Amino acid sequence: MTRGKLWTGLIVLFLAGTLTGIGGASFYQHYEHGYRWERGPAAHKERILTRLTEELSLTSAQQADIEPIVHQVHVEILRLRFQHHPEVEQILTKGIATLKTKLSADQQAKLERLYVQLQQRWQVSRDYLQAAQERLKRPE
Known about the structure:
Elements: H1 3-35, H2 40-56, H3 60-83, H4 85-100, H5 105-137
Helix pairs in contact: 2-3, 3-5
């Protein structure tokens, strides 16, 4: 085997590995982004806890100490979000109505389905907030 063929083979192997890595990362990113909302706000809180644990190298005792704090902050942020929800809903409804004037009938139907999915995610968040507030009211 000549040196040229060896180098060509190595370059092809390197490029194949690079493309596989890029494709895998892109697939994961698309999957994670697409299904993040379906897992709801509880999963968001868990991601925050995991990130803090990894980034700060928290011990088990520290994790136990910060979990209630993260939970409390998460609930307060959700509460604030839902206090302003009627305003967000009004803006979104106007925006969707304007969008529909630029879309075909099929596109309008799909937009409507997307909006229904969004409302379902909001309901999951509302349910989570209500359960979390009840949990905070209960004495441990």
